[in-house]
Write a structure and sequence with these properties.
Helices cover 40% and strands 13% of the residues. 46% of the residues are buried. By secondary structure, it is of the alpha/beta class. The structure holds pyridoxal-5'-phosphate.
């Protein structure tokens, strides 16, 4: 008998779990589980949001030209090589749909962002997980895992949830050694937090096989608005544009994103505040005896003695109203990923972790 069945691969998808935002029985919680900017978006973006209410009866632009021009002017990138999406999640999905399918392979690394595997499976392709070295992408292992079926390689640089990154020299080397039919995707969701780093934009200009993707959900403080974008070779962007829904970004999303991009002073302030607090937080966590890699992002990843201690600490933090992220699904069960909050929040968080560890002795 004929049965209605999803395409192969679909039922292998494990549902993406977003960072929790509620705790049973607690009215007030401190959410440090989704790498959001604790200071929110630029006030200019919020103002644009209120004003966009006047145009809600109009369809949004299909070309996204104002937003692409804003990105182009501020970051010095040709606007016809930019595509905008409903978060960078949509760009990841478009990439898999456009460039991979049945029998193709999509590479991502051991502790790579969950949407790479999900989107590869949704496109009917085979996801291939490549080991990292010391929680950091390893280009030699990636090159060794490539074959004639490899269509896409995803690297978040810096990576979520490890916070580590590789150099632009290594990325350039990777782009030279991968097979001719393979597109390298550099996911710069946290690129703005890194000093002297353009997310790979200059490499995209000189390499035919790299696309960079970015988001407004992190330092821009616009996770709720759902805007991301990509910058790549013209032929790649033109192919993606054919698959993208014509009205994927709403009128408010486009207006808000444009204003947020123009307000780079705000982004600089957020970066400075985050990076100072993050480095201080890492030092303090190490002082409490927890191993913690240097982070290039807006989150930290303390390591506990084992999975059980990490989970007990998480439960203790929850009892005090703090929501952080367990990362067992990223093959990191003895770690907790903690978004950097404002200084006062981090002080309170440290006190709770210290109390927890004292109770363990
Ligand atoms: C590495 C990485 N890429 C992409 C995304 C997706 O971001 P968004 O779809 O909100 O733009 C995230 C979000 O957590 C991320 O950490």
């Amino acid at each position: 008998m004929v049965k209605i069945e999803p395409q192969p691969g679909i039922m292998e998808i494990e549902l993406y779990e977003g960072g929790a935002s509620h705790l049973e029985g607690l009215e007030k919680v401190i959410k440090l589980s989704s790498n959001e900017n604790p200071f929110g978006p630029s006030p200019k973006a919020v103002q644009a949001y209120s004003q966009s209410g006047k145009a809600l009866h109009r369809y949004p632009s299909t070309s996204h030209s104002d937003l692409r021009n804003a990105i182009s002017k501020v970051l010095g990138l040709p606007s016809d090589q930019i595509i905008c999406g409903v978060g960078s999640d949509e760009i990841i999905s478009l990439l898999c749909q456009t460039f991979s399918g049945y029998g193709d392979e999509v590479i991502y690394t051991e502790h790579g962002f969950a949407m790479y595997k999900i989107s590869a499976l949704a496109a009917g392709a085979n996801p291939v997980e490549v080991k990292e070295t010391n929680r950091t992408a390893d280009i030699r292992k990636i090159i060794d895992s490539c074959n004639e079926n490899t269509k896409l390689i995803f690297i978040a640089n810096p990576n979520n949830p490890t916070g580590t990154m590789i150099s632009l020299e290594e990325i350039h080397q990777l782009s030279k050694e991968i097979p001719k039919q393979t597109l390298l995707v550099l996911d710069g969701a946290y690129a703005e937090y890194v000093d002297h780093y353009d997310g790979g934009a200059e490499l995209v200009k000189i390499c035919k096989n790299i696309i960079m993707i970015r988001t407004l959900s992190k330092i821009y403080g616009l996770g709720g608005m759902r805007v991301g974008w990509g910058f790549g070779p013209k032929e790649i962007i033109e192919a993606l544009q054919r698959v993208r829904g014509p009205f994927n970004l709403s009128v408010p999303a486009l207006r808000v994103a444009e204003e947020a991009i123009y307000d780079q002073n705000y982004i600089e302030e957020c970066k400075e505040e985050n990076n100072n607090t993050r480095d201080w937080l890492i030092e303090r966590l190490r002082g409490l005896g927890l191993r913690c890699d240097a982070s290039f992002t807006n989150f930290v990843l303390p390591q506990f003695e084992n999975q059980s201690q990490a989970e007990l600490c998480d439960t203790y933090l929850q009892s005090k109203g703090f929501i952080v992220r367990r990362v067992g699904s990223y093959n990191l069960p003895q770690f907790l990923r903690i978004t950097v909050g404002d200084r006062k929040t981090c002080e309170q968080l440290l006190n709770v972790i210290e109390e927890f560890l004292a109770g363990q002795k």
